């Protein structure tokens, strides 16, 4: 069916009921309603309200309904249809009170996305029975033509599965929940079950990326980090960009990354989809969603260390990560155990933080806006950043290389740079609830040394509606970059002292001695950086945000108002 083609309208049978079914290319929605509602099914006021919501959603998704659907209707935007196929020959259908068997069915089945509660999606199917074969073919062709126009959908994917992440169920999750949906949607895959850490990263330097429409990782944030490093590294290599240069403009990666959550925290998935559910993520991938994402690059002087997209955390979150690795056998519970231990330890670390505020950012870390699908704050921030960069290039504003640095010396329980809200099941609003996925900035959170009870109050606020930054010992800034130097390296003129020390076998700095002897009772001098769940050995670092460097198969968390909360599209 071409655009401008007339709407297709027929009376078809659904579950033994005659329905008026229509497909209008302009509206790009498949709609159906029962012609004669079943006896006894009276519409309640609640159902009326639900219908209004469904119609609102359809209007929002299709750019306005020209035609109001009468009560009892269903609306499925074509962009949310997973596939359309001939109905099975052996399928039975209900006609009046008798079950009948069709020998040669003139029927087609539409598989589509249904929104459940809390951002969860599921795959639903509805079969339409036609009076004859010609009509059935006409419907199959019209729907097929509209689906062919969904050009953003992937056809061939490269999948990496970490069999050891989370509860070690990555392979099972993929095979049982995800692969059947991909085959339903006609997506072909090449699957690599990793055999060692960094297998996926190294493999991405070798594969022919042109063959694929996307790369998937099945695992947690650590596994995502591997794929992120492989992909960004590969693209920089192909475009002759030196990642060791902290000031370089990195080449963006056009191929999208998909995450099937099968790890312990899965914060990148949660903060970009709204839920950690393999089926929901698979459906976002099938529909070809796209969400750009800022990436932070971490350097030590002229040496590239790591990329991070969620949290770069020193102190509390670094210590949790380091301590939890020893208890990996506990699965995701290792973090709760380590968290409790680190809370009791009340470690703090002395150092200096310097940063440049993201002056052009449209939002601020303590405002009440939330990064949601199609976020206006991200769009406006990037527009202002680009305007600022153009003005700088024309010499209209000062070059900020040396200016506007703010420096804070102190004793810190935690230093976190949240490049996104970092929501996860442990903290559904996240480390920095107002942080944005693609605004070119990160939220720098400094938690100064405080009493155990105050730190607990701060932590608890990550799990309720109160503001976790509203304490005199917490500071938060929206930044474009920052540097951290631990106290013991502050006076060191040798910029590479830390890395040199580490390179000489047998020579250890004080921090390492204390870490090796936890029973010595002193407060450790150094923590480690938790970089999307991977540890960094270096403590003195610089971080810079690269705006919108990568793309995910996601759309950002949808506004709950668009969800049919507790209300399927049937009313
Ligand atoms: C008294 C209740 C206190 C609850 C406080 C909860 C605060 C939670 C904030 C969580 C931020 C998470 C930032 C993301 C971290 C992940 O990248 C990382 C690795 O994930 P994965 O590879 O999937 O395992 N996870 C962690 O560092 C664990 C943090 C756990 C904090 C308790
Ligand atoms: N086959 C493998 N064997 C061991 N480690 C692996 C393998 N594949 C990936 N890894 C590593 O496992 C770590 C944790 O993976 P992840 O999927 O994030 O699980 P979790 O969320 O439980 O930490 C990552 O650092 C990743 O590099
Ligand atoms: Ca950001």
Automatic annotation (TrEMBL):
Residues 152-302 form the DAGKc domain. GO terms for cellular component: membrane. InterPro entries: ATP-NAD_kinase_N (IPR017438), CERK_C (IPR045363), CERK_PH (IPR057465), Diacylglycerol_kinase_cat_dom (IPR001206), Lipid_Phosphate_FormReg (IPR050187), NAD/diacylglycerol_kinase_sf (IPR016064). GO terms for biological process: ceramide metabolic process. SUPFAM superfamilies: NAD kinase/diacylglycerol kinase-like (SSF111331). One of its GO terms (molecular function) is ceramide kinase activity. This is Ceramide kinase. The lineage of its organism: Eukaryota, Metazoa, Chordata, Craniata, Vertebrata.
């Amino acid at each position: 069916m071409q655009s401008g083609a007339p709407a297709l309208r027929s009376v078809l049978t659904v579950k033994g009921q005659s329905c008026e079914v229509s497909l209008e290319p302009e509206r790009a929605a498949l709609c159906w309603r029962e012609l004669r509602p079943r006896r006894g099914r009276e519409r309640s006021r609640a159902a009326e309200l639900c219908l209004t919501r469904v119609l609102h959603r359809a209007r929002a998704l299709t750019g306005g309904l020209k035609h109001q659907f009468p009560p009892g209707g269903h609306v499925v935007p074509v962009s949310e249809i997973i596939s359309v196929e001939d109905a099975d020959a052996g399928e039975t259908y209900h006609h009046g009170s008798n079950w009948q068997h069709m020998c040669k069915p003139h029927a087609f089945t539409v598989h589509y996305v249904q929104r459940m509660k809390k951002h969860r999606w599921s795959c639903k199917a509805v079969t339409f029975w036609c009076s004859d074969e010609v009509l059935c073919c006409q419907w199959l062709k019209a729907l097929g033509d509209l689906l062919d126009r969904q050009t953003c959908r992937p056809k061939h994917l490269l999948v990496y599965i970490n069999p050891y992440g989370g509860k070690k169920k990555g392979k099972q999750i993929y095979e049982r929940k995800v692969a059947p949906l991909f085959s339903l949607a006609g997506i072909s895959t090449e699957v690599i079950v990793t055999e060692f850490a960094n297998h996926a990263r190294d493999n991405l330097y070798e594969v022919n990326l042109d063959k694929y429409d996307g790369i998937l990782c099945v695992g947690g944030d650590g596994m995502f980090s591997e794929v992120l490093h492989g992909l960004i590294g590969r693209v920089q290599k192909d475009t002759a960009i030196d990642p060791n240069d902290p000031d370089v403009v990195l080449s963006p990666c056009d191929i999208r990354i998909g995450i099937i959550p099968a790890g312990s925290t899965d914060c990148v998935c949660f903060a970009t989809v709204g839920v950690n559910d393999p089926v929901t993520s698979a459906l976002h991938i099938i529909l070809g969603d796209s969400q750009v994402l800022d990436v932070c690059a971490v350097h030590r002087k002229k040496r590239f260390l790591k990329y991070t997209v969620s949290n770069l955390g020193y102190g509390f979150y670094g210590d949790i990560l380091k301590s939890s690795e020893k208890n990996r056998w506990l699965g995701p519970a290792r973090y709760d155990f380590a968290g409790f231990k680190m809370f009791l330890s009340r470690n703090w670390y002395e150092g200096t933080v310097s940063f440049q505020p993201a002056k052009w950012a449209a939002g601020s870390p303590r405002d009440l806006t939330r990064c949601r699908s199609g976020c206006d704050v991200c769009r406006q921030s990037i527009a202002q950043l680009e305007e600022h960069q153009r003005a700088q290039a024309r010499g209209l504003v000062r070059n900020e290389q040396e200016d506007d640095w703010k420096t804070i010396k102190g004793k810190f329980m935690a230093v976190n740079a949240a490049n996104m809200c970092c929501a996860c099941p442990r903290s559904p609003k996240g480390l920095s609830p107002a942080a944005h996925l693609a605004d070119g900035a990160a939220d720098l959170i400094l938690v100064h040394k405080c009493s155990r009870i105050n730190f607990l109050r701060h932590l608890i606020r990550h799990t309720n509606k109160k503001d976790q930054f509203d304490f005199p010992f917490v500071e938060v800034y929206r930044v474009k970059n920052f540097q951290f130097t631990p106290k013991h390296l502050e006076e060191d003129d040798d910029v590479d002292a830390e890395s040199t020390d580490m390179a000489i076998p047998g020579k250890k700095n004080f921090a390492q001695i204390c870490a090796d002897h936890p029973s010595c009772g002193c407060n450790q001098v150094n923590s480690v950086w938790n970089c999307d769940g991977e540890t960094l050995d270096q403590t003195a670092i610089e971080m810079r945000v690269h705006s919108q460097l990568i793309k995910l198969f996601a759309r950002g968390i949808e506004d709950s108002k668009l969800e049919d909360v507790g209300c399927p599209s049937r009313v």
